């Protein structure tokens, strides 16, 4: 197993050559997001990156685990301190990361789309290849930890399907031009910076950043009949109509009502015209 080359990443992406303040690679940790949440309190700089060869307690949405075996993927978190972005707009950061993931996949020759709110799907029969988890951190200076997990090589053990029986896949299985995890990390961090810089300059507004139409065009959820599972509420079933500038999903239910959903799990049922 070829390890991720921290020195190579630093030479390409660390200040003053690149945008990042620190890039570290560790052999194993519970969760890179948890580690950087602690680093926020300790005063770590804006755009600090932590990558793990393995996570033993990788976190997904709603308390789920993200399977992170050694050598199979790129598991990274980025600490951001976007002081100019209002707190309610931080939720759109997952959409920014999603676009960076699609940029990376397509550069590697993999057909990829986004599933609202935080998954990248790949392949002719779309399967989950990557996920995003953004967590705001309470501290004196506004901070958010953005976690991204990408399956680069096939999993050695079967992975339990996600909501809607969505199976897992990897970049390699979908024909990526390389399975060099250092190169995948380099591309992802480069694309993330390009997208996040525009998002930050627009104070978190996807439309003002010129990212909203791109997200809509790459979001496979739009135009689908969906079931949206919302924490503490009943499921919404209807047509996914749109995504707004805060990255909220607009769903029209059978009674004609429109619902704005900021967070939830989406199951794709069928195309809305079917």
TrEMBL record:
UniProt keyword Kinase present: no
InterPro entries referenced in this protein's UniProt entry, alphabetically: aa-tRNA-synth_II/BPL/LPL (IPR045864), Biotin_CoA_COase_ligase (IPR004408), BPL_C (IPR003142), BPL_LPL_catalytic (IPR004143), Transcriptional_repressor_C (IPR008988)
Residue ranges annotated for the BPL/LPL catalytic domain, each copy included: 8-200
Keyword Ligase among UniProt keywords: yes
MF terms in GO: ATP binding; biotin--[biotin carboxyl-carrier protein] ligase activity
Pfam families: BPL_C, BPL_LplA_LipB
Entry keywords, A to Z: ATP-binding, Biotin, Ligase, Nucleotide-binding
Any one annotated GO CC term: cytoplasm
EC assignment: 6.3.4.15
Protein name: biotin--[biotin carboxyl-carrier protein] ligase
Lineage, top ranks: Bacteria, Bacillati, Actinomycetota, Actinomycetes, Pseudonocardiales
